[in-house]
UniProtKB/TrEMBL annotation:
This is AraC family transcriptional regulator. One of its GO terms (molecular function) is DNA-binding transcription factor activity. Residues 247-345 form the HTH araC/xylS-type domain. InterPro entries: AraC-type_N, Homeodomain-like_sf, HTH_AraC. It holds the Pfam family HTH_18. GO terms for cellular component: cytosol. Coiled coil: none annotated. It comes from the Bacteria. SUPFAM superfamilies: Homeodomain-like (SSF46689). Keywords: DNA-binding, Plasmid, Transcription, Transcription regulation.
Length: 350
């Protein structure tokens, strides 16, 4: 582990690592299936139930990993990641999971899964690597400080295996599987599930797949639907640009405003970093937390006030203000107008 942490990783130049809430939902459901409320543990790991209502909302990858590890410990299920990965259904992963099952061959399915994986999880390496005659599917979260992460690694490798078996049959198996983490107790469960040699404390998580298997056809290939799903995924990830740190902070501020609580600590928690780290990274960009909050409130206020059906009280609440008077003073500072005057002006212009 010491070697892993000494790898170059300049946090100040990295975006906030995130994962779609649809994946968090899988782990939350597993916890509550054991009769254990997820609320306290979500809060402990800097998460909340709010994003679970929308499968596309990104949540902190670091907090998700910590929650996954905590759930495995709380439920005394050290092989939870494998169990959830084995039970995964394509639709649980959204369009990227469905697309996997519609491709013509295993190779194409994996290549598309890797291409669109950023729509599901950011700051992560996933790809096919060719070493001589061998082809490996490699998976690794780029931030080495996100550790331990055994459950996520086993979950991800297991779900890819499960998706493949849903097309090629339950007897399909990779030739070899590597994991970054040390061999856990009861690791025979992993060998039994994968049906392959398992090696631990390796440089990365990866799976050796024979070239013959990669070219096996999928019986349920659906070329007509592929284009539609791919376009949806392209819309989700845009032109491939990674969410910037500034965008991640702005999104976290908006979510905190909706909850009615907006503090440095809460925003940092949503981002999966400490308050001091958040301050330091904003300072490096020549900004303060207060400036970013006011900027986001200003933008949101103008957008909300264009909706004449919203009362000023509702607008103030959505901005995280305790009352209309405080919101009105802030708005006048930003624009030189009262909220009512701004709304009337925009109404007359439309």
């Amino acid at each position: 582990m010491a070697d892993r942490l000494t790898k170059t990783y300049e946090a100040s130049s990295q975006p906030i690592a995130s994962i779609r809430s649809s994946v968090l939902r899988v782990v939350v459901d597993a916890l509550e299936a054991n009769g254990i409320s997820a609320n306290k543990r979500l809060s402990k790991c800097g998460l909340s139930r709010e994003p679970l209502d929308d499968p596309y909302i990104p949540v902190s990858l670091k907090n998700y990993i910590a929650f996954f590890e905590d759930v495995a410990k709380e439920t005394a299920q050290p092989s939870l990641g494998i169990r959830l990965g084995e039970a995964i259904k394509p639709e649980d992963l959204g369009p990227i999971g469905v697309l996997y099952t519609m491709m013509q061959t295993l190779r194409l399915a994996i290549l598309r899964f890797c291409r669109f994986f950023p729509a599901l999880q950011s700051s992560t390496k996933l790809g096919l690597i060719i070493e001589g005659d061998a082809t490996w599917l490699e998976y690794q979260i780029e931030d080495p400080s996100i550790w331990p992460r055994r459950q996520d690694a086993e979950f991800t490798m297991a779900l890819i295996c499960a998706l493949t078996r849903s097309r090629l049959g339950r007897g399909w198996a990779p030739e070899e599987v590597h994991f970054e983490h040390a061999a856990p107790r009861g690791h025979r469960d992993l060998a039994q599930f994968f049906g392959a040699v398992i090696r631990y404390e390796q440089p990365t998580n990866r799976m050796l797949i024979s070239n013959e298997d990669l070219d096996l056809p999928f019986a349920s290939a659906n070329p007509a639907a592929i284009t539609i799903i791919e376009q949806h995924l392209i819309d989700l990830i845009g032109d491939g640009a990674v969410q910037t740190f500034g965008d991640a902070v702005a999104n976290a501020i908006v979510r905190c405003m909706k909850q009615g609580e907006l503090t440095l600590e809460l925003v940092a928690s949503r981002l999966g970093i400490g308050p001091r780290t958040l301050q330091r990274r904003l300072t490096a960009e020549g900004r303060t937390f207060r400036e970013v909050v006011q900027e986001q409130r200003h933008r949101t206020a103008e957008a909300l006030l264009k909706n004449e059906r919203l009362s000023l009280g509702a607008v103030a609440g959505k901005l995280g203000y305790a009352d209309v008077a405080t919101m009105s003073r802030a708005f006048r500072t930003w624009t030189g107008q009262s909220p009512r005057a701004y709304t009337k002006q925009k109404s007359s212009q439309s």
